[in-house]
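Can anyone check this?
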Amino acid sequence: MSVAELMAARSQVYKELATTRLRPRDGVAEYLEWLRNRGFLTALASSSPNVMVQFSLSASNVDASLFSAIVDGDGVQRKKPAPDIFLKAAEMLRSSPNRCLVIEDAPPGIEAAHAAGMKCAAITGSLPPERLDKADFVVETFDQVRKWFMT
């Protein structure tokens, strides 16, 4: 099997699983709306190819318009843990990296956020807190991130 065939098979399996199992994390839409209502710009920065990002948004019923920018793996040369994707997101938002907060759920993303000069909140769920301890702070919910903004 060629690399292209393997990637196509992987995408197909992901789509089949995502159609029945992918759900947005509790509170994500409310959190994004809360940010937008307060004038914050938001970006979705995923190392996945564009087709997978769009599929994931659709399958999880997350409205792409909640994001001011979407950066995917097709738009950068180096993937996480390189900072490229977060730097591109900051550029698209016309923001300096030190004014950005990244919310991540995996160590390579935390490393990428810090390499980009950004603060990083790790959200548990896919990994336990001890695996995310390199983040600036670790939370379990988006409501806890919202409270951080208000301190």
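Reply from J.R.: I decoded it. The first strand starts at residue 43 and ends at 45.
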